[in-house]
Amino acid sequence: MFMDGYCILDSAASSSDAYWLLLRVLALVPLWHYLLLAAFILFSFIYNFLELHFLQDLFSGFPGSPVALSYNASSQIYHGVVSNCKILHGKYFATPWLCSPHLQTLFVNYFGRPPSLKYTRQLFRTADGGTIALDWLSSSDVSGGAPHGDDVASEDESIPIVVIIPGLTSDSSSQYVKHLAYYTAKRGWKVVVFGGVSITSNFSYNAGWTEDVRTVINYLHKEKSKAPLFVVGTSIGANILVKYLGEDGENIPVAGAVAVCSPWDLLVRDRYIRRGRMQKLYDKALAFGLQDYAKLHQSHFSRNANWEGILKSFSVRDFDDHATRVVGKYESVDTYYRRCSSSIYVKSVAVPLLCISALDDPICTTEAIPWDECKANKNIVVATVKHGGHLAFFEGITASQLWWVRAVNEFLGVLHSGNYMHKQKKNSKSSIALDSSIDHGPYVNVTEDGTVAALNNGPTTDM
Ligand SMILES: *[C@@H]1O[C@H](CO)[C@@H](O)[C@H](O)[C@H]1NC(C)=O
Ligand SMILES: *[C@@H]1O[C@H](CO)[C@@H](O)[C@H](O)[C@H]1NC(C)=O
Ligand SMILES: *[C@@H]1O[C@H](CO)[C@@H](O)[C@H](O)[C@H]1NC(C)=O
User: Fold this and answer.
1) 258-286, pLDDT tens digit by residue?
2) Which of 98, 390, 409, 457 has the largest count of CB atoms under 10 Å?
């Protein structure tokens, strides 16, 4: 047959004859071969789209991802604390059926397998009339003992307290927060989940609004001055945490902190999340989450922001443009992102700080990690793992545990048992070391209490 075809072509036939012949040849291939090919193409597409790494893992014998640590060579926090953390010197083995950053991230948000627990809610009133929900959990809540009441007088005053600052649209009921709260309380410590926004304050939902955190931490320190205070921030909560640590420097009652999956630089995060195909889906999902959140506080947003715009927001940037930027009085969304990014505060952090991120985090890109600034600060150790997704890091065949939760607890445990916990030094009052030119941008006004407002009459020198 091939020879036939060859002969026809050879005898100067028209090109349509050639295609006709080709079609006849292709028609001879059995249908199921085509189906097989289609299935293979579909599989490769999905495999790449979801960034699965199952086959790579399988062919290399499920080697796990080693933890990469980045720190200043003379960092005491590394040599005195992190070097004694086994988990941070081991490997992270992803759950085999969650071998993709997207599957990990979806699973933690929609299933998460959280331990069951019940918080005790305390409503904290701020001086400006805002209300912040503080959800408490202690070891008696998770070990089946008597429920934890308000009577704390009989308890050991020196039990450490871990303050959790959750991320965007998350709160104490979020799956990953429950994992962290449960396992921290299980080891005998007290946990308090920061309810996030102060519902009646005008500054709700601002990635750089540190005042509420500062107020609550000062209050906790005043109430329980013998208890070491640790703070764990996740995602946007990690951004708020690092910014707060940098703003207050030495004068801070925090003994140690962990920032998990921080966005670091909101401008870079914004550009990243609007670039990739998959990232655009996350962007939409996050925008819808923010809209739901806004609807809960409709009276506040319709009074202080552009409510029509909020309802039409299909991305986080749209939402920030119509809500966050307006409420915070920033000139532009980028001004807001630039001012509220924690990366510019890294150098002033004075407490032991562990930062954990997955290199495949689909939301908070590693492009934004300020490696050099972190390395220049001896108090900071950055731990990165190749896989894990955003706030997920599921491990075990049943995906019942989060690796980062174990890593955080081990780090805080080692820090607590040694001599490296930070002690508040009152003398260096509020040392915000914003001395690079970009922070002296022409159109923002930072007042003493940390409020940031845009100036529209400032000189417009180049940035
Ligand atoms: C919030 O904003 C409104 C209007 O801009 C103002 O009247 C109110 O005093 C503000 N509340 C707080 C707590 O700042
Ligand atoms: C480590 O810290 C020292 C002193 O704080 C500093 O001089 C040095 O540049 C830092 N190293 C790096 C790699 O940033
Ligand atoms: C910045 O804000 C403070 C307090 O609102 C105000 O007194 C000061 O004049 C402002 N600075 C400029 C440059 O507008």
Assistant:
1) 999 999 999 999 999 999 889 999 999 99
2) 390
Model confidence, pTM: 0.83
With a CB cutoff of 8 Å and minimum separation 6, the contacts of 4 are: none
Query: Which amino acid is it at 386?
Result: K
**CA-proximal residue: ligand 3, atom 11 (nearest):** 445
Express each pLDDT in 139-183 by its tens digit. Answer: 989 876 555 444 444 568 899 999 999 987 788 989 999 999 999
- Residue 309 CA, ligand 1 centroid: distance in Å: 20
Listed in sequence order, the residues at least 6 apart from 170 whose beta carbon sits closer than 8 Å to its beta carbon are 176, 177, 196, 234, 235, 237
Among all bound ligands, the one having the nearest atom to the CA of 303 is: 1
Contact between residue 378 and residue 348 where contact means Cβ atoms under 8 Å apart = no
Contact 119, 135 (CB under 8 A): yes
Q: Mark whether 390 is an active-site residue.
A: yes
456 in contact with ligand 3, CB cutoff 6 A: no
Q: What's the gap in Å between 343 CA and the centre of ligand 1? A: 30
DSSP letters, 232-278, are: EEETHHHHHHHHHHHHHTTS----EEEEES----HHHHHHHHTTSHH
Q: Is 447 in the pocket of ligand 3 (CB under 6 A)?
A: yes
| Ligand 2 site-directed mutation target among 72, 76, 379, most atoms within 8 Å of CB | 72
pLDDT in tens, 284-310: 999 999 998 888 888 888 888 999 999
The DSSP symbol for 430 reads T
